[in-house]
Amino acid sequence: MSRVFKNVEWEKLSIAGGIPHFGYYRPYRMPDGTVNPRFREDGISGLILDVKDKRESGLNFFFSVLNPEIEEGITICVVPSHVASDTNTSGIAILAKRLASEGRIDKTDYLLRQKTIDKLATGGERSGQTHEGSIATNPDMTVSGDVILLVDDVTTSGESLRACKDILMKSGASRVAMFALGESLRD
Known about the structure:
- The protein contains six helices and seven strands.
- It is of the alpha/beta class and 187 residues long.
């Protein structure tokens, strides 16, 4: 099996079917709309929000820490935004494109949202069926035989990543390792 991560713990977790992540993400807003007092506790939540907002501070930070931990020669794909589009222009897609430019294969536009879904962070349906029914593959690309790193900014239930992994495997990928910048915490 081809490696995806140089980071031994991430590689082990990935092989076991888990979702490695860099840290934990505390949403900026609480469910009642107030600001989360623990949001800036560790600094990682703010940097993840910077990626979501396409700010260079977050993009540069995560590029610098992730690039040395990912093998060269692999394909990089992203979980598409909740908004229907024929390209992926989210912050995580920008980061993924930068990581791909370092000796990896950029297929960040392989998975495309064909139907807008409710935003998950505000209570949208998280089931795998919701994702599989709203995501298509780019007919101008193939992932047959590829070893893929599939990235997302934040994972809560893992359903978005797992649904996209299933689509990639059905499309012929030889391996799909999932990764998220952060795992969501609700304090």
